[in-house]
């Protein structure tokens, strides 16, 4: 029987802005996600068009604080009130780790506060204590799609240099508070996503930058996050000496549509547009190809004197990433089918199946991605998001028969094991997205379900919020028990 390495960190992942709820409780302030409206009529083939947020959209959200139907992230799956039950279910599955995020606006409600919110700090104390009671190692994302809204309205988000200082105050606060409870940290979730949804990641609203090159605005905000990430790594290592700090990348894997050299080049260029961000965080400097892009497109990044030194001196310890699907790239896309993926629309691969949301299912692509990343960086890897979004059905006897999810996961796990055993990849662990059903980021729907545990609410927030184990719950439990997918 082929087994995963001893000490492999099996677990699951969620994000506070999609899962936690309690958005206006315990002194929490507004975040960018609290005013992100759902689009229930979104076309599965074009839902990415809804990622742009305007100032008017924000004002509309602020004007309706009572509305949790059109703003479903406000209630999420109500982990705020169910955390003990949820963590007990994770423990029942045998989780070794749980990836979660700390809501910045729960600790510093406005982002620029001088003192933290003690009630928010106490909530995460209670969560970490509950995890550690069961021997579950927290893996904490410092910033996962939820900058405090005040930083958008009064500082223009991460475009402002001041936000670096606000963020490092937050990091110092949580590292100090939880230094005896959290060892594994990630700085920014899918840091590269700034280029695809700048509001969610960076608090950037295009209509607030009239007269400016918005692409330059995005890259300037990205630079500030790179500096902040390096400083966060420094702070974390100083306060928690045995800590490990990772970056987090959206692993978008592109194949050439054909073997024409033009398509190969197009795919290579597309991959560089993904790797630019992890290259910067791992090597501590901008890659030459990104600097060339800045020069060729008249993008001028304003730096302070120590920025390059800070980035170089405090690179990340490991690379974590999300992987859901792969796509193709072609020099000429005329007449080619496109299909959605994780925050993208891309050329469809005719050799792959697709999920109900149009995402291409490619387990072998995960092995390819692991090899590419490990060959490129020679640092430990951690898969912190992977899973199948599907329309699960709760039967009358409160069961969910999700054999399709089990088959999806089994194939991906087999490819992970091949990458470890056959290709020599150093893989720390795996946290599936999302271990418990939550509000999907792309569509703001809970009907796009990922979990091993069903949460009884619909897209409009109706339901009991009761939790029910799916068939995949019991299967994943066996995987963890055996540290293998080869069991009877």
UniProtKB/TrEMBL annotation:
Annotated keywords: Glycosidase, Hydrolase
Active site: 385 (nucleophile)
Keyword Hydrolase: yes
InterPro entries to which the protein is assigned, alphabetical: GH, GH_1_N_CS, Glyco_hydro_1, Glyco_hydro_1_AS
A Pfam family it matches: Glyco_hydro_1
Family of the protein in this entry: Belongs to the glycosyl hydrolase 1 family.
Name the record gives this protein: Family 1 glycosylhydrolase
High-level lineage: Bacteria, Bacillati, Bacillota, Erysipelotrichia, Erysipelotrichales
């Amino acid at each position: 029987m082929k087994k995963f390495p001893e000490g492999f960190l099996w677990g699951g992942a969620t994000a506070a802005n999609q899962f936690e709820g309690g958005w206006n409780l315990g002194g929490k302030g507004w975040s960018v996600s609290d005013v992100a409206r759902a689009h229930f009529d979104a076309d599965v083939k074009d839902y990415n068009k809804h990622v742009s947020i305007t100032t008017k959209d924000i004002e509309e959200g602020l004007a309706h604080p009572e509305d949790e139907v059109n703003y479903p992230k406000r209630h999420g799956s109500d982990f705020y009130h169910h955390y003990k039950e949820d963590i007990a279910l994770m423990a029942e599955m045998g989780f070794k780790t749980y990836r979660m995020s700390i809501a910045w606006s729960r600790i510093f409600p406005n982002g620029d506060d001088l003192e933290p919110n003690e009630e928010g700090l106490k909530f995460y104390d209670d969560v970490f204590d509950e995890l550690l009671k069961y021997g579950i190692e927290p893996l904490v994302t410092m910033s996962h799609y939820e900058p405090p809204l005040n930083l958008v309205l009064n500082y223009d988000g991460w475009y402002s240099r001041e936000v670096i200082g606000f963020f490092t105050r937050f990091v110092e606060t949580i590292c100090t508070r939880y230094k005896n409870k959290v060892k594994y940290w990630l700085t920014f979730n899918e840091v590269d996503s700034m280029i695809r949804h700048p509001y969610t990641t960076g608090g950037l609203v295009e209509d607030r930058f009239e007269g400016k090159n918005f692409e330059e605005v995005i890259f300037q905000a990205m630079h500030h996050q790179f500096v902040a990430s390096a400083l966060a790594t420094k702070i974390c290592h100083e306060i928690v000496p045995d800590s490990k700090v990772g970056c987090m990348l959206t692993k978008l894997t592109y194949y050439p549509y054909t073997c024409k050299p033009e398509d190969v080049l197009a795919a290579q260029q597309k991959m560089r547009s993904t790797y630019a961000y992890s290259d910067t965080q791992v090597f501590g400097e901008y890659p030459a190809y990104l600097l060339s892009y800045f020069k060729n497109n008249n993008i001028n990044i304003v730096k302070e004197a120590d920025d390059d030194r800070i980035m170089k001196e405090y690179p990340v310890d490991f690379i974590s990433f999300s992987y859901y699907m792969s796509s193709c790239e072609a020099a000429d896309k005329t007449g080619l089918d496109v299909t959605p993926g994780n925050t993208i629309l891309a050329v469809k691969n005719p050799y792959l199946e697709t999920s109900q949301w149009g995402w291409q299912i490619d387990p072998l692509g995960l092995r390819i991605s692991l090899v590419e990343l490990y060959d490129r960086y020679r640092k430990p890897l951690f898969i912190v998001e992977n899973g199948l979004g599907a329309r699960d059905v709760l039967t009358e006897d409160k069961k969910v028969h999700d054999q399709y999810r089990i088959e999806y996961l089994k194939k991906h796990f087999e490819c992970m094991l091949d990458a470890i055993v056959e290709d020599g990849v150093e893989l720390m662990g795996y946290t599936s997205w999302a271990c418990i059903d939550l509000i999907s980021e792309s569509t703001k729907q809970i009907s796009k379900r990922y979990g091993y545990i069903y949460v009884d609410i619909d897209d409009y927030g109706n339901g009991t919020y009761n939790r029910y184990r799916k068939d995949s719950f019991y299967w994943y439990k066996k995987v963890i028990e055996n540290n293998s997918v080869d069991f009877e």
